[in-house]
Amino acid sequence: MKTPRDPNQPTLAPRGRGAATSPRNRFERRDVEPDPDALDQQIAELEDGEQPSVATQVLRDGTRTILAHNDSPDLGFDTSINPYRGCEHGCAYCYSRPTHEYLGFSAGLDFETKILVKEDAPALLRRELESPRYEPRVIAMSGVTDPYQPLERRLRITRGCLEVLAEKRNPVVIVTKNRLVARDADLLAELARHGAAHVMVSVTTLDDELARRMEPRTSSPRNRLAAISELRAAGVPCGVLAAPVIPALNDHEIPHILEAAKEAGAVNASWVLLRLPHGVKELFDEWLARHYPERRDKVLGRLRETRDGALYRSEFFRRQRGSGAYAEQIAALFELHRKRLGLGKRSDGLSVAAFRRGAGEQLSLL
Q1: From CA 242, how far away is CA 312, in angstroms rounded?
Q2: Is the pTM for the entire model greater than 0.85?
Q3: Which of 113, 286, 304 is nearest to 214 (CA)?
Q4: Is the peptide bond before 136 cis (omega within 30 degrees of 0)?
Q5: Counting runs of H as helices and runs of E as strands, what totals does the chain give?
Q6: Which residues are bridge partners to 270 per DSSP?
Q7: How far is Cα 92 from Cα 275, in angstroms, rounded to an integer?
Q8: Dihedral angle at the C-alpha atoms of 200, 205, 211, 216, nearest 10 degrees?
Q9: How far apart (Å, rounded) are the C-alpha atoms in residues 282 and 98?
Q10: Helix crossing, 296-306 with 280-291: angle to 10°?
């Protein structure tokens, strides 16, 4: 039986998506809004329990450079590669969503359904690493969006970049929520032999239902832990990133996440507090209203306790950890169990000693 949408209920999110809407781009003066009558009609035509769907659009990114640089003192890296712009994982809380607004898109559904792919990334990377001006350094993959989002299984752009990094023996650190990273254990193991690889697997929760709602197209918690085990078996140093820690929603899971990661073989651990820049605040609030209305006020209230009464503060270092008594409690809980389990605080420094620029450079040594 088909029933009309209740206008007092939160907007129904498309199947497999974290956001329900595409809010206005903060840089655009004009905005295109869907016809509410047409939206009601579309939803009314769905069968009971059925969700609307929005297909992913793959767009070509014709960038001519691939290495991005930053001078942020709290990131731990200054050079990164992002093979994709936008992310199909659709995490409701993703702090990177506002980057899509620079492209003329929305931080909401557009971010997870309009994905720009850098098909030439491996060739561009090779050119940059072979340049005599390039100085070997640690390169991060996932500075903005996840390099192992679902499209990577088919497009293999991240693997192409890793092939270049392994050939040049340039150190890389990867952060991902997707078990697909284990597919590239061969290349990461080759880099690890030269002290030039480290992977951090993000585990936000061990609750399958919470993960499905909050991170709809990521790997399950069990599969992320399996990725840690597979990478460690291949000799790749691997840690766990408990991120984001969301007050009154998943902060109580910190001890269990660290224990599960340790059992899987993780060697170090870190955490990041929930970050809600720009329009992500409204998107996350909408998500709470849809999925956890009974916890909404408590989650947002606790978050404000860590952000001086606001939902977000952008100052370096404080943006990652927050401040105040509640933030200190989270930090103390994490440190207590990290030390109890013998997990390192950070990854060992990666080495550039084995870097090789190209065949010409190697022949010159003979």
Answers
A1: 19
A2: yes
A3: 286
A4: no
A5: 14, 10
A6: 241
A7: 11
A8: -20
A9: 12
A10: 150
